[in-house]
Amino acid sequence: MKTQNKKPLLIANWKMNPPSAKEALALAKKVDQGIKNISDVQVVLCPPFVYIPIFHAEKFNFLLGAQNCFWQKQGAFTGEISPAMLKNLGCSHVIIGHSERKNYLSETYEVIRQKVKASLDVGLIPVVCIGEKAQGSPNAKRELELQMQILLADISRTQSSKIVLVYEPEWAISSVKGVQAATPQDCEAAISFMKEVLARKWGEASAKGIHILYGGSVRKENIREFIEKGGADGALVGAASLNAQEFVSLVKESILG
Ligand code: PEP
Predict the structure, then answer these.
(1) Among residues 100, 107, 168, 170, which one is catalytic?
(2) Which of 62, 113, 158, 223 is the most exposed place for a label (fewest CB within 10 A)?
(3) 87 class by beta-carbon count within 10 Å (0-12 exposed, 13-18 middle, 19+ buried)
(4) Model confidence over 133-188: pLDDT tens digits?
(5) pTM
(6) Closest Cα partner for 129 from 214, 65, 46, 7?
(7) pLDDT tens across 219-251, in order?
(8) For the chain, which domains are there?
(9) Residue 190 alpha carbon to ligand 1 centre in Å
């Protein structure tokens, strides 16, 4: 069983929710209130882009993140948001390569690789999502390794301490009705393997310093076992982060007593 050697990191991915700025601010305020006396966990909230300036104007106890960015610095790229824009609006983190972007927007590994590099270049922490498509796939390890080789290709050993990885098996994301979270055993196997790949790339010591989170149907009831038994240093939380009470309980549960 794991001892907690890194401060758990919980990243709320609100996806395309809620529909109004008023609701977004109300939800953020409730989360903020709930976590204000908690210092043993780092919480990052990633709202839709349009709410970022509003949150930036407030003094919150969580860090601010975005759900995506573009890979170019500036220019004629209609509808895109650069890493520097996010940094200038107070973001510390940016989720890169979420499976929903791969599946709905055909985002390729090559595009994700460039986004990882572009975010590091301006001092944003890329939260890089990696995971196999199908449950029980005999090629799962090969898929994970291939994704890591491509997505992390431009990152030096020194920069490796500035990234966060998420083991996000696509089959476990709650947006598909009836989906189940991975088991802590699935999570442990994948995260151990990811650590091996990282150690081969950057050495054992650097690999140990990297936060690897779990993402996929995380709830207040299962977060503890992903940390205790699954080897996760925290979680990327989708649906459960849209309910302040649930999310605050989940944050509290992530602190191993
Ligand atoms: C996610 O968005 O990465 C995610 C894990 O979502 P959910 O928690 O809803 O499964």
Answers:
(1) 168
(2) 158
(3) middle
(4) 989 888 999 999 999 999 999 999 999 999 999 999 999 998 877 789 999 999 99
(5) 0.96
(6) 214
(7) 999 999 999 999 999 999 999 999 999 999 999
(8) 9-253 (3.20.20.70)
(9) 17
